[in-house]
Amino acid sequence: MDELGHLSDERLNEYLDGVLSSRALSQADEHLRDCETCTRRLDEIAELFVTLDGLPEIHLRKDLAPQIVETLRSRSTVPSASTWKSTWRLGLALAGEAAGALILLGLAWPEALAWLAQGAAPDLTSPFISALDESARLFSVMFAAPDPLGLEALLSSLSTPSIPWASVSSLISVLAGSAFVWLLGNGLLLRVGPPSANRRDR
Amino acid sequence: MDPPSDRDLAVRARHGDAGAYGELVERYQTSVFNVCYRMMGNRQEAEDMSQEAFIRGYERLATFDPVRPFGPWIRRVAANYCLNRLAVNRPVTLPLEDEHETSRGSSRRQVEQAAEATERTREILDALMSLTPHYRAVIELRHFQELSYNEIAQVLGISLPQVKSHLFRARKLLGEMLRHDG
After folding, report:
1. Of A44, A48, A71, A83, which to mutate for an interface test with B (greatest number of B Cβ within 10 Å)?
2. Is A54 in a helix, a strand, or coil?
3. Rounded to a whole number, what is the distance in Å from the CA of B130 to chain A's nearest CA?
4. pLDDT tens for residues A9-51?
5. Domain map of chain B by residue range?
6. Domain range B1-93, CATH architecture
7. Is B108-182 assigned to CATH 1.10.10.10?
8. Structure ipTM
9. Is A65 within the bounds of a domain?
10. Are A63 and B47 in contact (CB under 8 A)?
């Protein structure tokens, strides 16, 4: 309703478009029964609907199909070729990444089996406990050392971290392989290009 | 034998059958041309835009759901294509030619009626062409393609309140112009 108690133009448009809720519709119907001003305005808007509906269909004077077909054949493109090509390349990249991951898993698997079989680290929590011990030791060195900054003691106390079940060479090969597959995969994905961002083109 | 359905033709076209797509063009070229004519206001340009819209539709067939009817989809593609063209181009030129053809044997009364109809058509098209491209697009999608507010918002990539605002303002302007002309 506007300030004079009439239905707004927006409401009348929605009324004609049939998008009002049942409650709003019954309110509008009730108001229109008694209000000549709104009924007149509704008729004016409805007249436009009728006018637009009455716009005749314009005849097409030539057949567009032959030229379109000829154009499509001369381009010899499969519809949405770019989309299909992108999908194909994306699938290839993903397959490559999956294959790389499987290879890496295969490489690491014997190491893991050997580690489990030897019982080198039967307690799976031991690496974490070791890390906690190391943290506690560093903390005590820093705050109980005789030199005020504690740096000398800290540096001398640092020990080389180690992972008990993996050799350095296997770690390096696994990391290098992962990096290669990751770079290759992302390179391919980037070459695929982003999807169209223009929603209006649908 | 029954003619192939739109769905069959669309599926064949998706696999690269340009001839199947040509049959779809034959079926829907008039309605697509009319969309372009209402958007562009010029016969030659409407024909060019119709061709381009069909080619664009072919390139985007992967986004078409064959379960749904082809006609509304390609008309939306055409409306959008025209809107994009209008958004970057100059104001449209108004139609100059007579769109109501009368046969040579028409009576004088028939000729007069045709002339009146032509004049009214011209007034409506003139009023449409005086709208901004976005206002024209919402009128096209709502009144001629009968899309819902939500569908219009989706097609044009605008919000629901914008759809309502564009539609109501466009109707108000059209109504004023047509009353003035009438």
Report:
1. A48
2. coil
3. 15
4. 999 999 999 999 999 999 999 999 999 999 999 999 999 999 8
5. 1-93, 108-182
6. Orthogonal Bundle (1.10)
7. yes
8. 0.80
9. no
10. no
